[in-house]
């Protein structure tokens, strides 16, 4: 990975974008068990795949403030692939709707990212979060997407408040790995919707 320091000057950094094997395997087993005990088998498989990807994304983002393309695009691809398999009544329409939601949600977040950067003259949201938003659109029905973002934002705010209360310095420039909150929120909302739906 290369990071630009000043105009035209770059330095190389070694950043490990691999999730912790223990966290990934342990989390995948727990999610797989919960999904298998709560959901019919095709939905349980989809839930396990999504949950495993989201554990990997949250782990990597929490450590590096980066969401690897393999995880975000993997989640997007799996969401588009799962949509027709999970909607036997009209699989083609489900796939088209998943693609449309993915593009729409990614577009909204990209606009938000651009607007924030234009107003504040600094990046406030990474491209990884925009790519993850596309995966959110692919996996969740339109009415569930706001809940996903509310859960993630609420979790991030609670974490910042807890850090501040524990005496840590929290300023406007303090970085927060938003993907580490979006990833579990996506799986939770998908799983809850599948159990109740």
What's this entry about, in short?
With 197 residues, this protein is mainly alpha-helical.
What report would you give on this structure?
The chain is mostly helical and 197 residues long. It has one domain. Helix content is 72%, strand content 5%. The protein has a two-stranded antiparallel ribbon. A hairpin with a 2-residue loop joins strand 1 and strand 2 (9-12). The radius of gyration is 18 Å and the shape is globular. The termini are far apart.
Helix fraction?
Answer: over 70%
Report strand %: under 5%
The biggest sheet, with number of strands, parallel, antiparallel or mixed sense and barrel status, is:
2 strands, antiparallel
Low-confidence stretches: 1-11
Number of strands: 2
Walk across the major sheet and give the strand order: 1-2
State the domain count: 1
Shape: globular
Element-by-element helix/strand order: EEHHHHHHH
**Global structural class:** mainly alpha
Q: Taking all residues together, what is the mean pLDDT? A: 90
How large is the radius of gyration?
18 Å
| Distinct helical segment count | 7
The first-to-last residue Cα distance is: 43 Å
